[in-house]
Amino acid sequence: MKNIIFVTMLLFVPLLSKADLNIFACEPEWAALAQELGGDNVKASSATNALQDPHYIQARPSLISRVGRADLIVCSGAQLEIGWLPMLLRKGNNPEVMPGGPGFIEASRYVKRLDVLLSSDRSQGDVHPLGNPHIQTNPHNILLVAKVMADRMAQLDADNAQIYQQGLVDFSQRWMNAITGWEERATSLRGKRVIAHHLSWIYLENWLGLEEVATLEPIAGIPPTAGHLGSLLNRFGNHEGADFIIRAPFQSAKPSKWLSERTGIPAVLLPLTVGGTEQASDLFKWFDDILDRLLNAEDS
Ligand SMILES: [Zn+2]
Questions:
Q1: Distance (Å) from CA 115 to ligand 1 centroid
Q2: Distance of CA 28 to CAs 127, 189, 215, 264, 280, Å?
Q3: From the CA of 78, how far away is ligand 1's center (Å)?
Q4: What is the whole-number distance in angstroms between the Cα of residue 200 and the centre of ligand 1?
Q5: CA nearest 34: which of 162, 148, 175, 201?
Q6: How far is the CA of 86 from the centre of ligand 1 (A)?
């Protein structure tokens, strides 16, 4: 019986999966957003998962072939993926998804980028010379990108344009309601001071009125050193001057733990994207979980 069901399922797969748009996202939040907007009409997947550092992944052959099949690529950009995306695009050999064309969205172009430097030198570390690319931690940015994405999906798959525009209307409504709830919950966080592992959270901080007072990395992109942690201990040793030490799941827990144990400042793991924690299972639950974790740490 099991076999019959299995074979029957196989036969119907092509009929059931009527996905018209194949979307390749560089980061999980954009794949999740594409799926929210397009539902069954899109097949969205992400090059990186939430437990990987999006700055550094291998340009594997499977990723190259996915780029080759994609109708639309969505990436944060601002050089976040500079170490691997150019090679994927080159080897994927798909003219439909080249930057500058309708098949490519650089999400960070459509938000107000923070920390844009006037000049930079990559020998100074991964300083994000075009501005900080970790735009996804402000939900208002997600909405700005959603509008661009829905327009582009409608353009590329005109037969279903109405579905994408309706998807945007539905999502916008639910998302704006959720933002109102998050902002109400987060009022007590305003003014709290953050030591971040990497500059991954400045859009979240900007949104919630948190203040970043230091990073565990001595220079952006350079792992924490004993010398730098020692200087942070001197600076924050009396538990004054900072309220949270924040890291993403793919960043080593050791530096946070080391400093937290010696200063009493709570170390908090936050999901940097959908799937970063068990609780952050979709876009909405991801921000719910960020707030849960910050508010819990505040109470502890
Ligand atoms: Zn970064």
A1: 11
A2: 22, 26, 24, 33, 11
A3: 10
A4: 6
A5: 148
A6: 17
Distance 248 CA to ligand 1 centre (A): 11
Give the phi and the psi of residue 218 in degrees, each rounded to 5.
-65, -40
First-residue to last-residue Cα distance in the chain = 54
Indicate whether this model's pTM tops 0.85: yes
| pLDDT 10s digits, 142-179 | 999 999 999 999 999 999 999 999 999 999 999 999 99
Query: Would you place residue 127 in the very low, low, confident or very high pLDDT band (cuts 50, 70, 90)?
Result: low
SS3 6: helix
**127 CA to middle of ligand 1, Å?**
7
Please, what is the angle between helix 226-236 and helix 254-263, to 10°?
30
Contacts of 191 (CB under 8 A, 6+ apart): 209, 210, 211
Q: How far is the CA of 4 from the centre of ligand 1 (A)?
A: 50
